[in-house]
Amino acid sequence: MIVVMRLGATAKEVGQVIKTIEEMGFKPHLSKGEERTVIGVIGNERKFDPGRLEVLPGVEKVIPILRPFKLASREFHPDDTIVNVCGVQIGGREAVVMAGPCAVEDREQLFEAAEAVKRHGARLLRGGAFKPRTSPYAFQGLGRKGLELLREARERTGLPVVTECLAVQDLPAIVEFADVIQIGARNMQNFNLLEEVGRVQKPVLLKRGMMSTLEELLMSAEYILSKGNMNVILCERGIRTFEKYTRNTLDVSAVPVLKRLSHLPVVVDPSHAAGEKYLVGTLARAGIAAGADGIIVEVHPHPEHALCDGAQALLPSDFQKMMEELRLIARAIGREVAPSPDAAAPAAPATATSSPHDLRAEG
After folding, report:
1. Which of 2, 78, 138, 165 is the most buried (most CB within 10 A)?
2. Percent of the chain with pLDDT over 90
């Protein structure tokens, strides 16, 4: 259920509704929009009597939420949620690009990648310290040492850090070192981990499982939201289908569907969908064109030597080209992608003192 307050409802009236919900044995969740205040009622709705709330001062109406994901739904929060990551707004006008290596391998590799993506306009640095791998013999990441290197890279470049948490026991270290906690596809339905992540006030990047429906993704987000952490970013990273020419199938339609169903921001991971770098730029462009609030992409200075997913990693020069293309697409749909920090300023327009010769040359 959601309780929609009247326009101009006072803080006292809102407080009385919250108190009554708690007295009824339910959990209230307050959502303030630009014009309206909405209070979500969380619990077993079969035991809920809407009449007790409908008669309270300031209440306009009580509406049942039919979808199983309550807090993630548009009904609960009609306005888009904007997740603030150290001043970077995810879910607003800017389509935010997060970039960096799949895994932190050593200081030189990480710093070279971090400086390259910063130079070409990335707003967040991604990098794995703990790596879930299909084979137990594959590189599993540097663990805490990798987190320490990510912190050094953040101090050096100013880029907030996104890194993956694999297990509840690793969460304290991730919270200490990272700015965004990534929950990978394999852990999308690790409900114990989701609940623990919901208890910390750090932004969470939640990736769709490789064989999960959109409703299952939103129900996983609900686990995090229900514990009080409303800073969730959804990520479409490709799903497993019968197609063999790509690693996964990027579900571009997931972007507008999720944005219709939910208020949470949505980003696209073209790297894990593609599996090969020649596809990454194309899928990134498709994601931005579909309305994604950002892209998370892998960049490695020497992918031929990468210890993890080198085939899908972009070279810094590839990343630069992709960013130039994304800026054009974003502009065409009324959005923007951050320019390169060292981009040359546009030439000043000709002044009235320019000579006819100068003007002809400029033309």
Report:
1. 165
2. 71
3-state secondary structure of 124: strand
Alpha-helical (H) ranges within 73-143 are 107-119
Q: What is each CA distance from 275 to 76, 297, 330, 351, 363, in whole angstroms? A: 37, 11, 24, 51, 45
Coil, helix or strand for 201? coil
In a domain, 165, yes or no: yes
Instruction: Please choose, from the candidates 248, 163, 180, the residue with its C-alpha nearest in 3D space to the C-alpha of residue 208.
Output: 248
- Per the domain annotation, does 69 fall within a domain? no
116 shares its domain with 228? yes
* Spatial CB neighbours of 218, under 8 Å, sequence gap ≥ 6: 69, 72, 73, 234, 258, 261, 262
CA 162 to chain CA centroid, Å, is: 10
Domain that holds residue 115: 83-332
Specify whether 97 is located in the same domain as 163: yes
Q: What is the DSSP letter of 103?
A: B
The strand pairing partners of 59, in sequence order, are 5
The CATH number assigned to the domain holding 17 equals 3.30.70.1140
At residue 258, what is the residue type? L
Helices 316-332 and 277-289 cross at an angle (nearest 10°) of: 20
Query: What number is the average pLDDT over the span 237-253?
Result: 94
Q: Which two tokens stand for residue 165?
A: 């948490």
